[in-house]
């Protein structure tokens, strides 16, 4: 691990609003805010420690409600400067929380079923939320290049955010990615570099670059800016509660890739309780994986605390992380809150994408098929209570994973006349 | 033309809010609200006549500002019942008005340049706005099937809206459409019928169906529901002005397909003036076409009042209407407001898509390339004043027209090591 990635003690000098320091998730050691992600004491992951002590609950609530219709309404709770909304940013968030009554009927949910639809973000995935945070950290640390390794959604989010902010972007991808994905990432005009190797090779190279003088001024959103980046997922929790009328959902179903999103949603919910913005009552968090990449689900079912890596083989590519960094934390949260972790087959993913589209008019990415499919399975198994308020996340857009439903097609072909129409039984 | 398509005199009995009657655009003849689109007197197009007389300006403004973050905030100005926001609908609108400072610098605009980005709608095009209106009209008239002819965006918007509303949908398309477009339309689970013939054949068949008993209970959003459907485009004008702080833009650049959107944006702006919601001062409306389908632009440049049909041949397929129904009205509005109609080549469309993505992180459909390209051309010719506040519409999403930028790709390919990185000049 390169030297810049480990924090050293001292005082924070950058202005990132309420963010006070970085704190080790394992040992609690605190270091100043900086572009680092691993604890100098124990190499545990660093996360943001906040100072929320000055907030009055009702003043804060009003400030949020009067804020912009994007994640910056929560600026007082994020590692961003107070004037963040005035800077060029793609301003993700405040996506629809859809009351999914038709889907509820199909699944037998009576307590209220909602889909948090993050396909409404600027580049149509939840990644815009996390990249927007990383961008502010990059600006605070004086970085001039925004970078990442990616095989899909993240590349577009980084490219778009850097373009708006006027920063250079340089995204690293495996050189043999499908042409469609290359186009989606390349259109924003940043540098898009193909690495001769697989995704692991790309990641290894990025870590090497961060430790080298050549990487000076480079902010890798999900590496040296990871503690800031990850906080973006908290905004999903904030929005869900505010959109429910400042109320915790009883149950929430979250997809698992690295597991970071699920842990930060839990963090966000706990913050809202601590701040008095929602009533403190139990909630359950459920994790959703595809069977073809289900290391956390497998560990959960086996009663393990550690996650054994898997080689991914699923159509849910945006969730295909075989060795999820936050896997153990996810297990802990699922068990602590009374939730569960479950997985579904690729066939069930496809069926769930179609079910959501047919019932609610929402065309989800494969990751959305995973959460809807897992919700259905958890209801059938009794792990999820259909009489409770339930929120299911859709984190991406079906237009990006068209191949998954490529079998869908015409229901009939007719000649352009009424006789042919009647013969086809369409009248 | 089938008999049901022509209105007869009488009294409106349906509740569509402030909509009082249908009025002929040509002769002013009024008929009750109904699923009709052509005047019984002169066969001119019918549009909605409203009764706004009860509104107090500041009460109305507050009611709008307190309304939902979608088009239903403008329910008092639309042909929908007052409780529309409580009904299952995909709730489009309130999309971002992006202050495009980077693009402004590239184009030399100093008076403020904004992109109204309708790719943020539920199915990622402005069609959600118009279909949402048609859906309410369909409900009011007791229709049970929502239908349309389409080659793209409209099919998805109808499929999604009908799914959410729990109505049957049946969309007619040419049978040999590209598989990707078929998938996007089919995923919502409605009936998707391929017609053996071209788009004109599809349209002719739909008109035949409306006039036949087999078409009873069918609402064709852009045929027998057209007067209601078309009003959805007014919401673009409302949102732009409200997002500018209840101010008219000086200049607005709108794409032209049938021309309906441009005429309704003009109608929306005039309504805001009449209602006192914005100050009455001059604005200019500019129309944008692709050279390969530029009947209105050609007529404008030739000084004609009539539009001669063209056979479309352009990558901007969502604008490829060779015989635009509202073409003469567009010519009138462009001339009356001091605007213009211009066109750009397919190469300029592609360049403009890339320019917008590179400067603002917005990946537009080909139609967005047309408006940005035309804006650039109008600035260069002096027709558009760079010192004035200018709004450019992006009506769709680049993910739906990936082929247009298929040439975009990797900027470099390297081996996974720092030497290769340096050799490529990326440091």
TrEMBL record, chains A, B:
InterPro entries: Ser/Thr_Dehydratase, Thr_synthase-like, TrpB-like_PALP, TrpB-like_PALP_sf. Belongs to the threonine synthase family. GO terms for biological process: isoleucine biosynthetic process; L-serine catabolic process; L-threonine catabolic process; threonine biosynthetic process. CDD domains: Thr-synth_1 (cd01563). Residues 92-396 form the Tryptophan synthase beta chain-like PALP domain. Its cofactor is pyridoxal 5'-phosphate. Pfam families: PALP. This is Threonine synthase. Its EC number is 4.2.3.1. The modification N6-(pyridoxal phosphate)lysine is found at residue 127. One of its GO terms (molecular function) is threonine deaminase activity. Keywords: Lyase, Pyridoxal phosphate.
